[in-house]
Every structure is written in structure tokens, then in C-alpha cells.
Amino acid sequence: MATCTAEHHANHSHRHGADCGHVAIRHDGHICYLHDGHLHYPHGDHVDEHVIAVSTTNPVDCTPGHSCGAYETGHVHGPGCGHEAVPHGDHVCYLVDGHLHYPHGDHCDDHGRIELA
């Protein structure tokens, strides 16, 4: 059996599954769950911490022409804004209508689509 090399989420008592109440996304051929700003992958007797990799699908480009409407209405993405936090590369994005928004100055950058499960 292969050894798990992913970072484990310590002391995780919640069982993720189809009806657990957390947003499920398809990630690297399996299902992960967004939970309190973490991307959890139930794996055997523990939960792994995953991150959406920077890629051509989920780049880190600045996209000042991306109009998400949030800034026009005064909405600012951040903790407690009502959108799920998603770890992406070395930063946190927010899940809005199936894609990643990254707050950047006076606009949101579009960091690509996420496939909901």
C-alpha cells in the first residue's frame, strides 16, 4: 500500500460525504470538501489538506478587466464575506459562481473555474 505524503488535518472529527453540508469539488480525480477555508480530502482514517494548484486552468494572472460585480456593489471578498474560501497556490481565493475570485486592489482577479461535484 502506498504511503500518504499529504499534510494531514489534525483532530478532524467531522465526516465528509455527500450530505455533510460542505461544498464538494472535483480535484485531481477525487472529491474534496471546502471546510472553514481548508480543502479536505477524506483519506482512510484521516483527512488530507489539499490546495488547488496554480495551472493553466487555475492561473494567478492579474485580470483587471474581469467584472464580477462585487466591487460595484461594495462587496469585498475576505473572511466572513459569504463566499467559500479556497486555498489556491500560496494564497486564498473565494468561490463565486463556479470560479475563483482573488481580491486584488480595486478589482477581483479571475483565477479560473472549479468543478463542483
UniProtKB/TrEMBL annotation:
This is Threonine dehydratase. It comes from Alkalilimnicola ehrlichii. The lineage of its organism: Bacteria, Pseudomonadati, Pseudomonadota, Gammaproteobacteria, Chromatiales.
